[in-house]
Amino acid sequence: MRGSGLEDLIRRLRGPRTEYFLIKGKTELLDPSKYPFEKGMLPVFCKYIDAKMQPLKAYISGNRSMVFPSDSAWFKAKSIGIPFGRSSPTYKDGKLYTFFLTNASIGSGSLIWGFTEVKEALNEVKWMKKAKELDLRVTEPVGMGIYENIFVIDLKDRSDLFSYLKRTSLEDLMNRFHKEARKTEGACVFCWEPTDIRVDEILYAFSIPGIENILGRDDCRDYLKWLGSSCGYNLRLHHDNCIMHGTVQVGPGFMTNSHVANHLVGEETTWITDYHMAGEVKNEDIKRMEVFCLCHVMNPLPHAEVIARSRFARDEFPRFELYELLLSPSYEAITSLGEIGLRTPKAGLTEAFIDGIELGYYKRRIFEVESKLKRKMLRKSILIKEKIWEILKIPKRMQRGVDYFHARLYSRKLTDQDYRELSKAISN
Predict the structure, then answer these.
(1) Residue 334 — pLDDT band, cuts 50, 70, 90?
(2) What proportions of the chain, in percent to the nearest 5, are helix, strand and coil?
(3) How many CA atoms lie within 13 A of 129 on its CB side?
(4) What is the Cα Rg of the chain in Å?
(5) From CA 264, how far away is CA 278, in angstroms rounded?
(6) Do 56 and 186 share a domain, yes or no?
(7) 263 and 406 part of one domain
(8) Contact (CB, 8 A) for 377 and 271
(9) 269 and 211 in one domain?
(10) DSSP track, 247-258
(11) Residue that finishes a domain, picked among 178, 193, 208
């Protein structure tokens, strides 16, 4: 799907385009002809003070990235700030003001709010380029940008950040920036994508109770098994080439990039994206952890975590079960302590997806279905997600809210009228 058809689906998932600006910075490009802006100009999400900048518009992608169609593909700029809200970086007199979180519990453990560190951007471009050279199904690297005039104040974590912003006026915030901020550099990454539809986004449609009655039971299971097998197969090809998607042990737990929000899906196939934590595979345990995480992390399908744990609490996955479970922030994981090895909830669509991942990864085989079914289910799942977001009154810009979605879904029993609206959404 190209052109206006794909853009319509992106709009339904993300809402209207959002403003961004171009500011001066440093560009390091692999192919300058594929960079849609003037060399030395970088896109940024920010609020500006005393600056006369002309806003441009693009679709948001995640919490700090943007995409827009360009020629026959999509240009993505990753880690360019925060598009809206109190925590959005402030631009004034050629300087970007933001925050440095010292204990962020993501990536390397610390981060520049809205941006990435230069070393992480270099790592992402390096491994994306290597994967592309190996002809793996990945996004195409364009290069990176460096924001040379970032000024930060240190805060502990996200909770500390939002608590501070809630009780601080913009005037007091800027006064603190002027007195205490230290200068640093932040970075962003550029790539070309065949699509920006992420696997986690369309899985929400299949998380609705009774969705098989609207989309068809066999079609749902076949599509999800194909989708899982394609994702699992792509991960296996990376591991076969000694590339881990990005999983590191932090204390007794783990941080991972191997999840369904970092797989893209089109009408015929899937791709892997997001390489800032990628690296060389060091041991077999990390490979197994990445398969395990792909089955359930960021996955809204019902009981995904419980079912994944039941599959991997076996000899081939010996190290990462009980203590990781006890440290999980997921309520579902905690309540599943008594279920592992005793009983596993029945969730046919979730099982079909995880069956697919295991087929693609362990058997190196993709469960094939007709192209017509792939196209139909991609579009219908997006229309269903758009409608259920409306029914549950979830902001369209909330893209990665698995726990919030489940809370809203289970607190409201869907009515016959809701199901009629869902059916109508895919019949127009």
Answers:
(1) very low
(2) 40, 20, 35
(3) 14
(4) 22
(5) 17
(6) yes
(7) yes
(8) no
(9) yes
(10) EEEETTEEEE--
(11) 193
> Is pLDDT above 60 for 326?
no
Question: Which pLDDT tens digit goes with each residue over 214-261?
Answer: 999 999 999 999 999 999 999 999 999 999 999 987 777 788 999 999
> Are 225 and 427 within 8 A, CB to CB?
no
Please indicate, yes or no, whether residues 394 and 282 belong to a single structural domain of this protein.
yes
* DSSP code of residue 349: H
Q: How many angstroms separate the CA atoms of 151 and 172, rounded?
A: 16
**Same domain? 208 vs 173:** no
Same domain, 187 and 227: no
Task: Give 149-182 pLDDT, tens digit per residue.
Answer: 999 999 999 899 999 999 999 999 999 999 999 9
241 plus 134 within the same structural domain: no
Distance CA 263, CA 252 (A): 26
Q: Which of 168, 193, 218 is the last residue of a domain?
A: 193
Whether 385 shows a pLDDT value over 80: the answer reads yes
- Tens digits of per-residue pLDDT, 115-127? 999 999 999 999 9
Q: Is the pLDDT confidence value at 264 over 60?
A: yes
Q: Which of 206, 196, 266 is nearest to 231 (CA)?
A: 266
Residue 44, CA distances (Å) to 74, 142, 150 in order: 17, 17, 12
* Spatial contact of 196 and 67, defined as CB atoms under 8 Å apart: yes
Q: State the average pLDDT for the chain.
A: 89
Domain containing 31: what range? 3-193
Domains contained in the chain, number: 2
The span from the CA of 155 to the CA of 100, in Å, is 6
| Residues 255 and 389 both lie in one domain | yes
CB 197 within 8 A of CB 261: no
Query: What does the pLDDT look like over 404-426, one tens digit per residue?
Result: 999 999 998 899 999 999 999 99
- In the chain, what is the straight-line distance between the N-terminal and C-terminal CA atoms, in Å? 19
> What does DSSP assign to residue 208?
S
